[in-house]
Amino acid sequence: MKITRFVFGVILATLVLTGVPAFAEQTADDAVVDPGPTLYERLGGGEGVQKIIDHTISLHLENPTIKHRMEGVDLDYLAASVAAFLSAGTGGPNNYTGPDMATAHAGMMLSNEEFDAAVADVLAAVMGNVDDGQAEHDEVQAILLSFRDQVVGK
Ligand code: HEM
Description:
Elements: H1 2-31, H2 39-42, H3 45-62, H4 75-89, H5 101-104, H6 112-129, H7 134-145, H8 148-151
Bound molecules: protoporphyrin IX containing FE.
């Protein structure tokens, strides 16, 4: 019995002197871990996002797969609306007031090829506007690809 109590005492003392404080400290540190800048911030904030979308639209106008889709479209409105959409989806302010993606593209019967061409333009614009932007490229890609079913074939 005495030995058991002694062993228990030693374990308790060890925990108090070493393990418990270390554990407590680590938990406190974990609780205040800085998540780092949002994707929106890493894209350059409002100004950066607008530059990326302006660049994207200029690429769309040159892109043989989709340039015909831009005919007759109010490109200033489109640029502002898509920038607001991207801002809202990347952790920036949510000023998007347009329709959901299925409604925005209703009646266009967009193909997967057109969808991929449009996404490729956005990603090229990300790489062109963000220094060392591979991580941002991959994150924007994942976001955009999640909209395929809402955009294609509507
Ligand atoms: C992830 C893919 C896409 C996203 C996130 C997206 C996003 C948007 C947004 C936010 C709008 C504005 C809606 C509004 O405010 O009325 C819009 C409109 C438009 N999108 Fe997309 N789009 C995508 C794919 C495409 C593709 C593949 C095309 C054509 C190749 C396309 C062509 C257009 C056109 C022409 C409009 C303007 C329609 C109109 O004048 O009413 N979009 N898109």
